[in-house]
Design goal:
Elements lengths: L1 H20 L8 E7 L4 E2 L12 E4 L2 E8 L12 E4 L7 E4 L3 E11 L5 E12 L10 E12 L5 E10 L7 H29 L1
Antiparallel strand pairs: 1-4, 1-10, 2-3, 3-5, 6-7, 7-8, 8-9, 9-10
Helix pairs in contact: 1-2
Length: 200
């Protein structure tokens, strides 16, 4: 019975090792606020309906507050940033100080008139700020657009960038580890059942 227990423990250790090895490098931690100094546009218009539009431009996109590895970083300017909510990889901005963020997925919430929230997960390649090496790192950008009055008014935009973002172990690593764990449990239960029949 002892070899089976060792097998189960070994399988669990392999599962944990596979799930954590993806992030062997230290993950930088910090937040940056962003805002559009100019009126944002929806489908090419500064008064387009944000709740039905798919293409947006954040005019004169700049950074505001910062902390963590970004502490002390002065306000950074990124020009006009455009993206399309039907193309999850369409939002990219950056410079040599902040680095470059590129979206890989977008979750759009249009449930309230005059408000649009978009959660973007993506990759951030560090710039010179904070002395961060390595990358790209999985990060998250929570973007909000507000239109006053709803549907026809001017549009403002702001966001908060966070590293690390939502970190989820790679599915193949988890499946491989759990498969090994399940095999160990089945071997243990099978051997225990055989031992029971032998005693009887």
């Amino acid at each position: 019975m002892r070899p089976v227990i060792i097998s189960v423990v070994s399988a669990a250790a392999i599962c944990l090792a596979l799930a954590t090895s993806v992030w062997a490098d230290p993950i930088p931690t910090g937040h940056v606020g962003f805002t559009a100094l100019g009126a944002a546009t929806a489908d090419g218009s500064s008064t387009g309906n944000i709740n039905t539009a798919t293409s947006f431009t954040l005019m004169n996109w700049i950074s505001t507050f910062s902390n963590g590895i970004f502490a002390g970083m002065g306000s950074q300017s990124f020009g006009d940033v455009s993206f399309n909510t039907t193309i999850p990889t369409s939002l990219t901005f950056g410079n040599s100080v902040f680095g470059t963020f590129t979206s890989t997925s977008m979750t759009v919430d249009r449930s309230r008139a005059g408000f649009l929230t978009i959660t973007l997960v993506g990759n951030w390649m560090p710039g010179t700020q904070g002395g961060v090496t390595g990358g790209p790192f999985l990060t998250r950008l929570d973007l909000g657009l507000t239109q006053t009055p709803p549907n026809t008014g001017f549009i403002s935009g702001s966001a908060t960038f966070a590293t690390p973002g939502r970190i989820i172990p790679e599915p193949p690593s988890v499946v491989l580890g759990l498969t090994g764990l399940a095999a160990g449990v089945l071997v243990y239960l099978n051997r225990r059942r055989r031992d029971t029949f032998t005693v009887v």
